[in-house]
Amino acid sequence: MDKFVGTFTNKLDRKGRVSLPAEYRAVLQRQQSESAALMPALNAEAIAGGGSLYLETLHKRIEGLDPLGEEYNDWVDYIMPNVRNAGWDETGRIVLPEALIELAGLSDSAVFVGRYDHFQIWQPAAWAERQAELAQRHRRPRLSQRSD
User: Fold this and answer.
1) Is the pLDDT of residue 146 over 90?
2) Spatial contact of 121 and 112, defined as CB atoms under 8 Å apart
3) Where are the domains of the chain?
4) Domain 7-138 has what CATH class?
5) For residue 122, what is the DSSP state?
6) Sequence-separated (6 or more) residues with CB below 8 Å from residue 17
């Protein structure tokens, strides 16, 4: 499958190096991307990442926006100037830029979250909180068991 799925928690060292999950590297390689494009996520205090296909999708989305609109300016002024390419070394580690580490509030570990066409990198406690919110919101009321 050429999609980013699954959740992985990896150690982040003092130099900002973290292992890009092997599953994600495989997706990037199948997409013929030699690096991961990293940028601020618009919908969370997290890092968004993907390959060349994801960047193409973003560019197409931007091209379809009203150049005088707020969403266009959000993408052009906030996201695109902050895109950084991170190639992985022989052990599969990438170096996260300091500005993105700070943005996501990362310290000693990072949670990689598959989002189908891209992935996000979250601070573990923030991701756990997000998951708890989602579980609460989508939990179905249980039918009471009646013994008549």
Assistant:
1) no
2) yes
3) 7-138
4) alpha beta
5) E
6) 93, 94, 95, 96
DSSP letter string, 62-95: HHTS-TTSHHHHHIIIIIGGG-EEEE--TTSEEE
Nearest CA to 83 among 40, 20, 54? 40
In this prediction, residues 40-62 reach a mean pLDDT of 93
Q: Are 21 and 94 in contact (CB under 8 A)?
A: no
* Alpha carbon of residue 79 to chain centroid: 13
| Residues 6 or more apart in contact with residue 63 via CB below 8 angstroms | none
Strand spans (E) along the chain: 7-11, 17-19, 35-40, 47-50, 84-87, 93-95, 109-114, 119-122
Does pLDDT of 1 surpass 80? no
What values do phi and psi take at 109, rounded to 5? -155, 165
Do 51 and 136 meet the contact criterion of CB atoms below 8 Å apart? no
Q: What is the pLDDT of residue 43?
A: 87
HSE at residue 108, side-chain half, CA atoms within 13 A, is 0
Say how far apart CA 127 and CA 8 lie, in whole Å: 11
